[in-house]
Amino acid sequence: MTVVGIGIDVVDVPSFAAQLADHASGFVAGTFTAGEIRAAADHGGAGDATADSRPREHAARRDARLAARFAAKEAFVKAWSASRRGRPPALGAVDLRWIEVVDDGFGRPGLRLHGPVADALRDLGDPAVHLTMSHDGPVATAMVVLDREPPAAPSSPRADVPGMQRRPPKR
User: Which pTM does this prediction carry?
Assistant: First the structure.
């Protein structure tokens, strides 16, 4: 495995929540896919909260999950940028909805890339994309690692392959 890019991002959840609350900005619709918005809203239960605090707690959990997804998108852009070190950017602009955080069905996050971002990553040799995300209290974070298998070494005769003869060592 050869690491070709690493990116990390940290988001202040309260500041991010204030940005999410500004519905006139269009930030949510311009940043997240419908699936990401749905997953952030549906994930987790209310626990043993009182009836009065449930909507607030549900909104706080949703905000933290969206903050982690935003951090994942930013971490991917940083890892992708690092993989292109010394070369110009592959795209002039990136629509963050082209970078989608998805769940593998077991709660493990991954990235699904769309459009020009997916095409540009294929031009890098289609590296594997590894993602981890977390949120705790006022902080959400994500890290992305891009890696690919190194090119196969040219084959050469090996002494341990049946039918191959070993040369005696030179003296």
Answer: 0.81
